[in-house]
Design a protein that fits this description.
This protein has a domain of 72 residues. A hairpin with a 2-residue loop joins strand 2 and strand 3. The protein is α+β, with helices and mostly antiparallel strands. The chain is globular and about 35 Å long. The protein has a two-stranded antiparallel ribbon. It has a two-stranded antiparallel ribbon with strand order 2-3. The protein has 4 helices and 4 strands. The N and C termini lie far apart (31 Å). It holds the Pfam family DUF5785.
């Protein structure tokens, strides 16, 4: 896929320090964006790249494809849904993550 910007460039993962949730979280203003409308968020950021690991990059749209909610009331609710969708669809890079989450 041709990305709108380099996922490791200044607009992307900040020198590869930001992966997965962190890339998406940076696009959300916790004070102003809630309730967050999923369709609007995906329309604006859907083509942006999200680095999952050192060799995998997917779009924001790919991650949200498996999020069932249409709206989120707060940041915590959004993160939980994203984490669940990412784990269930092989977009969770962190080894041992299953030890820290229950049946989310």
């Amino acid at each position: 896929m041709d990305w709108p910007h380099d996922p490791d460039g200044e607009e992307g993962s900040e020198g590869r320090r930001k992966y997965g949730h962190a890339v998406i979280a940076k696009k959300v203003d916790e004070e102003e964006d809630f309730p967050l409308d999923v369709a609007s968020f995906v329309a604006e950021y859907g083509d942006d790249p999200v680095r999952i690991d050192f060799e995998t990059v997917v779009s924001v749209r790919d991650i949200f494809e498996n999020v069932e909610a249409d709206e989120f009331d707060d940041f915590t609710e959004l993160h939980r849904a994203l984490g669940t969708a990412m784990r269930e669809n092989g977009h969770w890079f962190y080894e041992g993550a299953e030890e820290f989450v229950g049946d989310a």
